[in-house]
Amino acid sequence: MKKNRNIFGKIAIGLIALLAITSCKEDPVMPDPDFSYVIDDKTVTFTNLSTDASSYSWDFDDGETSTDENPVHTYAAYGDYDVRLTAKGDGGEDINKQTLSVVKEWPAIAIDGNFSDWDAVESLYSGYGEASGTLSEAKVTTDAAGSKLYIYLKGTINAAFPVIQVMIDADGDASTGWQTPDDYASNGAEYQFEYYAIDLWGGGYAWNSDEGVQDWPWDIDITVDPDNGDITESSGVVNESEIEFVIETSLMKNPVLSDQIGIYFWAQPEDWSNTAGFLPPIYADPLESVKFFSFQ
Q: pTM value?
């Protein structure tokens, strides 16, 4: 009988030890989702930094998802996106949300007469002045805030053709704004910038919305500075063939621009106010269709 009591005692000690071991076993750990990312234009490469997880689910906030551990995703449009990573494991699941700003990187342009920084900018117009005009190429870019338009023009720019006209369809809709006569490209421009490339000053004007006015359908938009005007910076004409300057779109009377604007240029021999109210002569014909510049 004493022997049996010893056996029962050993069994009891074993059970107590087993319970002690079981009680010391940790509960499953809740996953800790985390990630980093690198943005290259519209393509985002994600690096998963989660711990205690065995599966993952990504929501890119554009209708697309992924279950890859380290996905690479390309967005169709620039913008801010709330990316959610759901990490699942034995301890459950948790979500990490981060907001990504997928924005266009604009080239840094210095207004210094050195045009090499324009090499990465595609031409908005190219070759349209070769037949009968003075301008052969135009490039346009902006700053990240969209408050400035950087403009590069190439062609014959000299004392014989000193006036550069810049027409802007600010709402991107050619059916609104100034509807030009037959000898112009119908452009629906809301703004006109007139830049005197030799004297280095300019004037900015807004369409006065009266479709019956054709000889001078523009109102002064912002105060014209006789030294700088609405062109805040300019390289001046280099070798009678190239020029770069900046238009401060933030100074417009109604500066709310659409994501896409229509824009075209021409050069003329003199200020059109000297033509006694008639429309200015066109020595570099605009294209029949106005090219669009996108801020995105």
A: 0.69
How far is residue 288's CA from residue 296's CA, in Å, rounded to a whole number? 25
* DSSP annotation string for 183-247: TS----BSEEEEEETTTTEEEEEEE-S-TT--SS-EEE-SPPPTTTTTEEEE---BTTTEEEEEE
121 in any annotated domain: yes
Contact status, residue 179 vs residue 188, Cβ threshold 8 Å: yes
Beta strands across the sheet bearing 260-268: 218-220, 201-207, 191-196, 163-169, 260-268, 291-294
Q: Is residue 171 part of a domain?
A: yes
Does residue 140 share a domain with residue 270?
yes
How many domains is the chain built from?
Answer: 2
Rg (CA), the chain: 33
- Residue pLDDT, tens place only, 205-226: 888 777 666 667 777 766 555 4
Residues 169 and 61 in one domain: no
